[in-house]
Structures
1.
Amino acid sequence: MTAAVDLRGVTKSFGAHRVLDDVDLELAEGTVTVVLGPSGSGKSTLLRTINHLEKIDRGQVRVNGTLIGYRQVGNRLHELPERDILRQRSRIGFVFQQFNLFPHLTVLENVVEAPVSAQRRKRSEVEVEARTLLERVGLADKAAAYPRQLSGGQQQRVAIARALALQPDVILFDEPTSALDPELVGEVLAVIKELARDGTTLVVVTHEVGFAREVADTVVFLDGGRVVEQGPPEQVIDHPAHERTRAFLDRVL
Amino acid sequence: MPSLSTVRRSAPPTTTSSASSSPPSPAEPTAGASTSALSAAPAPATHSVPPSGGGPVLTVVPRRNPWTWVGVAGVGLLVAMFVNGLVTNPGWDWATFGRYFATETVIRALGTTIQLTVLGTVAGFALGLVLAAMRLSSNAFLRTVAWAYIWAFRSIPLIVQLLFWFNIAYLYQTISVGLPFGPSFGSVETNDLFGALGAAVLGLALHQAAYAAEIIRGGILSVDEGQREAASALGIPRRRQFARIVLPQAMRSILPNAANEVISLFKGTSIVSVLAIPELFYQVQVIYGRNSRVVPLLLVATVWYIILTTLLSIGQYYVERHFARGSARSLPPTPLQRLRARWAGIATQAARRPEEVAR
């Protein structure tokens, strides 16, 4: 079986600074992976390479066996035209730290936009589905509201519904609770947990170690652009093998 | 302050009735326990935090500034003097103004002015959009060309440019369609292609495009980068990202500046009178050239310019409101809605009064 997400030797530099250094990662379908690491360790960049929001310098990224962002010709990788990259992205959900909802569109319009324009599905059909999704994230009554009329937690739940509307193979979460007030974190994590239970493949970059322990199948600890260790949470969080992991967890817990 | 503290001690029985107006206090003790805690909360809160300074409810008196009234009197006097001048000075010659204000020639000239404004705006902003896209392009050549265009057309005074276009036939007798340094596919006489009106529209549009480009570019830059990123992460096609996500948000900062431009273009059309095009200002000049009643005829043009600018400003208000959707939690009511609400208030009050009398 091909892995849902497969990274091989992914390397990326910003100028002289190497943000990702030869990262290998294989995530099975239906699993939840939590990426932990100090700030500046390359967590977000790693996540953004998976849907080609960030171009890579070397290596390859595959989602469900499909090479992302490039076309292989012999030994060379040619970057795909933007249209093809956009098509690939519409199968990969992405949830941002700052939500990035479209403020001039209602909640329903936010959810409906991409399935209609990117996947060319029928609006009436998508709208019915969108309402079901909004119900699932507990916001059925907010369909006509504008994002600024919602709390941060509600906005992030809309953003999750928006990502789900594309029926993605995998959903990537980039610090989904970091911009939220502490009392709103729980409602967003609850929605993510629910998705995990349904067997959606999730990759979550977060600082919530408790969440990682509870939900993750695999915890990946990243530092200095390298995977320091990975394994089930009991192993990585409770019995870390590396000094750097231990030092980080001591600071966070 | 012994007196204050004694007042405070004796106050509670009297304050409850005046301070907590929303929940009926006599029913509170029994109802509060059975219904939700939320409705019961306000009443105890007023007890535990007595109003600072004592029991009786203190009325807030806004600060008054007597100098404001002196200012109002002074400015009022100046306004009165101005109005007096308008009404009594025979030089304004309101009778002549009235005679020419809505004559057919003036109205037809006004039509030409509006036509020039509309064509200049539409063509100018269309080209401006292209130039803005070029300036934001990742290609250095396109960026440079757009920059050079804007530099050139902002540097040349409009009147000079208009005269250039008017005299274009002097430079190029014929205009041919073909490849540079290559074959020509056909040609036309320049003077057939460009009448005076054509030259005017072209000049106004090219001039306007340079300014419109910068306004549109500024608007696009004002949209948060996260918006484009989110749209692109969702796989929304490129053109749709621009039309549906970026541009509607950019419109919020484009509109006030664009309205300025349209208004200044509208008045700027008076410059094309140098090309002897019968627009409003030119026509007015023709008339006062004949009857030498300069002031009332200038007034005719002025009042029309004011009326149309006012209409444009009202239009601007509503268009801006349209693009403000979602920017505030709720939009403030329009002046019309406010008026209607007040009228409705007066009406219901009037309707209620007879009942009260009956009771």
2.
Amino acid sequence: MSRRVFITGIGLISSLGDSAAQLHAALCSERSGIARNQSFDIKGLTCQFAARVESFQAEKYLGSINLRPLNRSSRLASAAARLAINDSGWTPDALAQENVGLVLGTMFGSLRTISEFDQRILEAGPTYVSPLDFANTVISAAAGQAAIVHKLRGVNSTISTGPTSGLQAIAYASDLIRSGGAKALLAGGVEELCFQSFYNFDRAGLLCACNKSHCAIPFHPQRNGFVLGEGAALLMLEDEASISQRGAPVLAEIRGHASGFAPQTDDNDEAIEAIARTMQLALSDARVDADNIDCISASANGSIDWDRREAHAIAKVFDGHSGEVPVTAIKSLLGETLGAAGALQVASAVQAMGDGVLPGISGLTQLEHDLPLTHSTNCNQRIDADLTLVNSIGFDGQCCSLVIARYERTN
Amino acid sequence: MERVAVTGVGMVTSIGTGREEFWPSLLHGRSNVGPVESFDTRDYSVHNGAEVRNFDPERFVLKLDPYQVGRASQFAIAAARLALIDANIEIDRLDPHRVGVSMGTTSGEPREVERFDDNNVANTLEQVGSSFIRRYPCNLIAGNVAREFSFGGINVVIPTACAAGNFAIAHAFEVLRSGRADLMLAGGSDSFSRITYAGFARLGAVAPEICQPFDRHRKGMIPGEGAAVLVLEPLSKARARGVRVYAEVSGYGLSCDGHHMTAGDGEGAARAMSQALDNAGIKPDEVSYISAHGTGTPTNDRLETIAVKRVFGESAARIPISSIKSMLGHTMGAASAIEAAACALATLHDQIPPTINFSQRDPDCDLDYVPNLARDHRVHLTMNNAYAFGGNNASLIMKKCES
């Protein structure tokens, strides 16, 4: 008695705009969200760039509520939630009455709030910390704050699986709807850019070390790391009964998903196998073959190892057809937005299927030698796509894949 | 849909590691609350905690370098190893791709960020080195468990603060019911944290000496640390293996107050309990034991009592309800996982652990809290309650599995 899961609304805040249409238009016109990082002191660090959501004003989306208790993660998530709610046509009253829930992916929560709270303990003393700040140090704070802002009284869950958190949250929410545990849920992810995460990613040697903004190009031979970004994206997911009761519009359907893990992150073959297995399981879960997939949204972000592994995994699953399936990757313009990334990919994929245009991989003038992705290009492609496979892969060995279908009203 | 059995439990707590130490400690009402040793509390308004002392990670972390993972990961790996042994699992006979890990936590690996902050404040950031990203993010708790045992199935951390353990177990239950795994390790882990301690102290929620849930003179919680992991598998597979089944997970309820970050209203808690009963398909008077969230703060215990009475009506007075936080302190994201393990043990042994430090009844808390002494009691159905910042509520129901 498995129920179908539909996307009825999309809300997002990104460095490339605050709607799926704007994001898609920016990707298709190769407008970049990446710029020289001026939001904090990065002296002595390797990476000079970040994809920050400039001029984000939460008031614009949340009106006159008291924003003081909301840190940047909570504001980004609450604003994306507002946009998704509006897009899906839910009224605030109905939302509270029907116990609509929220499943939010995030890698860190607000690392900035956590760290600044701790520094206050060290500098001013433990009796001088703010109780309000303390409530925001929990990793689930943004989900809690968004629930208060929008009166979301159903399931309120936070999912942390590193950079795959956003896609994993959508997978988790899909299963709750499938099994009848919920009928409508907001699901997606959020991540804020802050000094603490930037510094430590840089020190770990994971960030792009070039001196130009357009260099973390997925699958490019000269890539050497990713550019950190931020944002939030939430989908309204609903079952059929809820949709027909509301007479709501449908944007797309989530057909299936799977998650896996590669325990040995330094073992190339094992990582490729884990990514391929996860993609294959997602296809089985969606009851489709690789042949049915019309395009792929890759997780690739400019990482030396993981981009190559993903490319080989795609070739493995599509067994000779990978040359024919167009693969896009949106992080050369959007940066690696960690917890938000997978959800932003889904938003972009839904819009791409609707518009019939798949954005090219910006900057991909040249493909790394031997990478089996001959149909990937920096040019936009016309597509008539019914099914998109979305990959999200983390440098810790996390893998998540999701199959989304364009919705035909005749279905 | 598959029925889901609990076939093993493992835990690291301040009153014992592994069920052979933990369960007798619970029944005897032991507690190891004392002055905090993890950091200097000179400048704090309170000084007691329930820390895990003399924990030797080398006993349990055998494949990974125990000192390359954080303390919460060390606890989680130890609890997982003990649970796998308890469930009589032969790891070599499992399909590693079909074994998943679902863990809850409040803080992840807080010592890593605390080390970063120490250096940042001292202007010695260069000493932080490159390890933060490989050691701090909370998802590493599940990741490190999977690495230690080479498990390639779904790997998730659900950091829903003080209700996280229940969330993680509920998720593992869903994963198994939908056939996405053959076996799940599910639980929670948290290590003692300066950030958490300072925050709760500032909220006035920390008791100066001991934790006295539901007592008239209760003064708050005692922050603690620890981990628990449950082995969950389809009941049919457990039966085929011929192993002992502690209990069957039969349902859960998750809800959100949507009202205030730190002040619950009891309505959401009642809703989670009612949903759990519905989800498990049972009537309130069938529940034989409630493991309370019971932090020992004046507000929590009063509101939880009201919520229980709202859901259970007249039968509330007849159902024993106890808080093992009276012994363990509040182990944050691990708490409801340790309490779920206690529910499984209570179901197996038909015994209920007490609420210790109970000396005087509170007119607002008028239920049967199993004061001070463990009790022999037929335990057929247990409800495990957990509440968290963000107005998060989670109730989990387990049932005796007659063979």
